[in-house]
Design a protein that fits this description.
Bound molecules: NADP nicotinamide-adenine-dinucleotide phosphate
CATH architecture: 3-Layer(aba) Sandwich
Number of helices: 9
Distance between the termini: 26 Å
CATH topology: Rossmann fold
Structural class: alpha/beta
Largest sheet: 8 strands, mixed
Order of helices and strands: EHEHEHEHHEEEHEHEHEH
CATH superfamily: NAD(P)-binding Rossmann-like Domain
Length: about 220
């Protein structure tokens, strides 16, 4: 039997968070959907119930969600990233943080002053919790469709143990996970999403994602 784990999703009411919550709950992960407004989180949980018939799905304010979980996914737009990480710093201590955030300005990628969203979070958290970058290149449309196959997930971070545990969670949602190196590599993985956004627009798709060939096939 797989180990029971709990995952909070900060910004869990959004496109990525909602889709991820359903994918995680299906194999039995306890999911705490977080929001700045706890009522909004509870409403999202209700809306997911017909789709998610098993697993534990609960709605909370971001702070409460983080407090109750072992893993914390940050799934807010880049504009809110630094502030929400700083606001939650006290609750994040001792957790494993999974940062999905892509620095975008008007839909275009850019490299933020810290070097990447992951390095920004790492700097704010100051070693209180390992930060792992993951899920940047996954399509929320595919994630939200239980039947859809998922692209590969490139996982970056400076803690080998945290990366391994995050890769295990990624496998539970039905995607292949690859160790893509240290936190210093995150700007490449985050930036790749800018290319996927362009490709989706150009080729009128919602499913652009990444596949690694030649490894593990
Ligand atoms: N969508 C995708 O396909 C996808 C794929 C990979 C990675 N990502 C990354 O995942 C993150 C979330 O994407 P998304 O499409 O899910 O975004 P979204 O739907 O626009 O927003 C997600 C949630 O973030 C919260 N939020 C919005 N503005 C905020 C702010 N200023 N401060 C704190 N919280 C705020 C909101 O929740 P409450 O109002 O309930 O607090 C919102 O529901 C982004 O950084 C994106 O780059 C997205």
């Amino acid at each position: 039997m797989e180990k029971e784990i709990s995952v909070a999703i900060v910004g869990g009411t959004g496109n990525l968070g909602t889709a991820l919550a359903a994918r995680l709950a299906a194999p039995g992960v306890r999911v705490l959907i977080g929001s700045r407004d706890p009522e909004k989180a509870k409403a999202v949980v209700e809306s997911l119930k017909p789709k998610v018939t098993q697993g534990r799905l609960e709605g909370r304010g971001n702070q409460e969600a983080v407090t109750e979980a072992e893993f914390v996914v940050i799934a807010v737009p880049y504009e809110g990233h630094a502030k929400i990480v700083a606001d939650l710093k006290g609750q994040l201590a001792g957790k494993t943080v999974i940062d999905t955030v892509v620095p975008l300005q008007k839909g275009r990628p850019f490299v933020p002053p810290a070097g990447s969203a992951l390095l920004e979070a790492q700097k704010i958290i100051e070693g209180e919790a390992p930060v792992v970058g993951a899920l940047h290149n996954i399509s929320a449309a595919d994630l939200g469709d239980a039947e859809a196959s998922l692209g590969d997930v490139l996982v970056c971070g400076d803690s080998e143990a945290a990366k391994q545990s995050v890769m295990e969670i990624i496998r539970r949602i039905g995607a292949r996970a690859f160790d893509a190196g240290p936190a210093a590599n995150a700007y490449v993985v985050e930036g790749l999403t800018g290319v996927l956004i362009y490709l989706n627009r150009k080729y009128k798709s919602k499913h652009g994602s990444v596949k690694i060939t030649g490894i593990g096939e």
